[in-house]
Automatic annotation (TrEMBL):
One of its GO terms (biological process) is lipid catabolic process. Gene3D superfamilies: Cytosolic phospholipase A2 catalytic domain (3.40.1090.10). It comes from the Bacteria. One of its GO terms (molecular function) is hydrolase activity. PROSITE patterns: PNPLA (PS51635). A motif (DGA/G) lies at residues 208-210. This is Patatin. A motif (GXSXG) lies at residues 44-48. It comes from Thalassolituus oleivorans MIL-1. Signal peptide: none annotated.
């Protein structure tokens, strides 16, 4: 049986990305013991990029990589990601207001609600970037991509490190650039606009990769993926929500949560739907006809795993874990309960919430063990 290059797509979503760790842990449990890294190509965005690069750095020992990822997320606290003390939070708010009110005088101030310097220190210690090239050279990994959004160009840029045969690409507002993945790339990819500061890479400032990412699946395909697993963080995807009557005006946290959902979730769901539609269309066209007409499109095997319950609701259940200073920044406790659980699901890097997400991801993947085994059947023969 021909072995196809397998791509892994890890979408963004702040604290929601803990769900991906649970799914990856289950995949390790489901597949045969002693197996190597099952993902040839990894493409990550925002917090998904952090998970992806961490996994890529342990591509030569997938088991240890998963344990390392789980250990990091299980011991998370909000103050490891951003400053949660009143002094730090107040300074960030003052700097944000100052930049908006007196822009020219303070034009070099980072425009952000939160100061995420603790995250930089954590990632610098936790991720061994120098191990990535070794994994590529030894064939344990084909490529890793970190997706960012250019603030000046408006382009979705996939910074990739991979096999020498991979070349840069240029599409409409989508660019692929070969580089050596660094801490700055991760900080840029996870820089949620107005929440965390943008990062300068070469001559341009970059922010969260989910912004203006029109085709989240395309980087993995450009890097050579012939089948793709997508671990989403949307929660009960493709299902309509029951709208409850609400006479009050949406809180600031509710509005921010809505905007983050639009940036992080909508494009992924739309691209998965588009890919599924293309696959169904191609399946109806005989291969001989495709070759005769020189059709460039090819069918990509796709497996999508999403949370089986609403992550917003899960975040609401852990609202009591929100740091007091963050409540202040979001306008009081009224914005950090159920009404503001959308924004909480992105910023609540607490032990309880992250553990619940990991457990949910693990149980969701284990419930689909047969599908996962079938997806990897060309890699592993029991």
């Amino acid at each position: 049986m021909e072995i196809k290059k397998t791509g892994l797509i890890l979408s963004g979503g702040g604290a929601r990305a803990a769900y991906q760790v649970g799914v990856l842990k289950a995949i390790h449990k489901i597949l045969p013991k002693g197996h190597y890294n099952p993902f040839d190509i990894i493409s990550g965005t925002s917090a998904g990029a952090i998970n992806g690069v961490a996994l890529a750095s342990y591509a030569e020992n997938y088991r240890i990589g998963i344990k390392h990822l789980e250990r990091i997320w299980m011991h998370f606290s909000c103050d490891q990601i951003y400053r949660t003390d009143f002094a730090g939070m107040s300074y960030s708010l003052m700097r944000l207001v100052r930049s908006m009110m007196i822009g020219k005088r303070f034009k070099n101030d980072p425009v952000s609600l939160l100061d995420n310097t603790p995250l930089r220190a954590l990632l610098n210690e936790a991720i061994k970037f120098d191990q990535i090239q070794g994994a590529i050279d030894n064939g344990a990994l084909h490529a890793i991509a970190v997706n960012c959004s250019g603030m000046e160009s408006g382009e979705s840029v996939s910074f990739f490190q991979g096999h020498y045969s991979i070349t840069n690409w240029q599409r409409q507002r989508r660019v692929g650039k070969r580089t050596r993945i660094s801490l700055d790339h991760l900080m840029a990819s996870s820089a949620i606009p107005m929440v965390f500061p943008a990062v300068k890479l070469q001559n341009e400032y970059f922010a969260d990769g989910a912004v203006r990412q029109l085709a989240p699946l395309s980087p993995a395909i450009h890097l050579g993926a012939e089948k793709i697993m997508v671990i989403g963080v949307s929660g009960i995807a493709h299902k309509s929500k029951i709208v409850k009557p609400n006479s009050s005006y949406p809180s600031p946290a509710k509005v921010m949560g809505h905007m983050l959902n639009a940036a992080f979730l909508d494009s992924m769901e739309a691209d998965v739907e588009r890919m599924s539609r293309i696959n169904r269309t191609l399946d109806r066209i005989p291969e001989a006809v495709r070759k005769k007409e020189q059709m460039e499109l090819k069918s990509i095997q796709l497996l999508e795993i999403n949370p089986s319950r609403s992550i917003d609701e899960l975040a609401g259940e852990h609202a009591h874990e929100v740091p007091r200073a963050l409540k202040m920044a979001l306008g009081g406790s009224g914005n950090t309960g159920q009404s503001g659980s959308g924004i909480l699901s992105y910023l609540l890097f607490s032990h309880g919430f992250c553990k619940s997400l990991i457990d949910l991801g693990y149980s969701d993947a284990m419930a689909r063990a047969d599908e996962i085994r079938e997806f990897f059947s060309d890699h592993f023969n029991e």
